[in-house]
Amino acid sequence: MNLKKFSLIALPLLMLGCSDPKVNTETTNTYQNYNGVDAQAVFGTVTYNEGIILPDSATLTVKLQDTSRQDVSAIVLAQQTIMLTSNAPWSFSMNYDPSIIKDKRNFTISVRIEVDGQLYFINKNRIAAFDGSAIKVIVSPVTGLKNTTI
Predict the structure, then answer these.
(1) Of 106, 118, 127, 126, the residue nearest 59 (C-alpha)
(2) 3-state SS record for the chain
(3) Which InterPro entries match (predicted)?
(4) Distance, CA of 11 to CA of 123 (rounded, Å)
(5) Residue 49: HSE in the Cβ half-sphere, 13 Å Cα cutoff
(6) Angle 52-18-88 (CA atoms, 0-180°, nearest 5)?
(7) On the CB side of 6, how many CA atoms lie within 13 Å of its CA?
(8) Could you give the maximum distance between any two Cα atoms of the chain, in Å?
């Protein structure tokens, strides 16, 4: 087995083994006919550059979406919500049904951090879901957050 194939297998396992036991994760797969047997995973980390500490009521939501169609809402293929009880960076991993992934479509990752239901951080750049490596997301504050004390 070559090093590239090994790293693609070992990295998700390593990330699972190093997860913070204080992080409460709940994964919701939103596509139909998911049987879990032939699932693939998309994974990565989320962080931010602001020098603030989020309260324990903060939640991180990561979505795998089909954003191919411009005139309709994105189709959510998988979603993970994490209660943020530790400091950044945070790891995510979402299973998806590979049979729903079609060529010539755009699949992206959408990330948001909310505190008590209010949006605080979001990714502002397009993040490709399948570029062959672990996804690294840096979220930015929403307008007006810089003057907000959490």
Answers:
(1) 118
(2) CCHHHHHHHHHHHHHHHCCCCCCEEEEECCCCCCCCCCCEEEEEEEEECCCCCCCCCEEEEEEEEECCCCCCCCEEEEEEEEECCCCCCEEEEEEECHHHCCCCCCEEEEEEEEECCEEEEECCCCCECCCCCCEEEEEEECCCHHHCCC
(3) Lipoprotein_YbaY-like (IPR053196), Pilotin (IPR039366)
(4) 23
(5) 4
(6) 10
(7) 3
(8) 52
Supply 50's token pair.
């602001």
pLDDT in tens, 41-73: 889 999 999 888 899 899 999 999 999 888 889
Name every residue whose Cβ is closer than 8 Å to that of residue 61 and which is 6 or more positions away in sequence.
79, 80, 81, 82, 111, 112, 113, 114
Q: Calculate the alpha carbon distances from 41 to 58, 82, 130 in Å.
A: 24, 17, 10
The token pair at 41 is 């995973």
CA 19-22-26 angle, 5° bins:
75
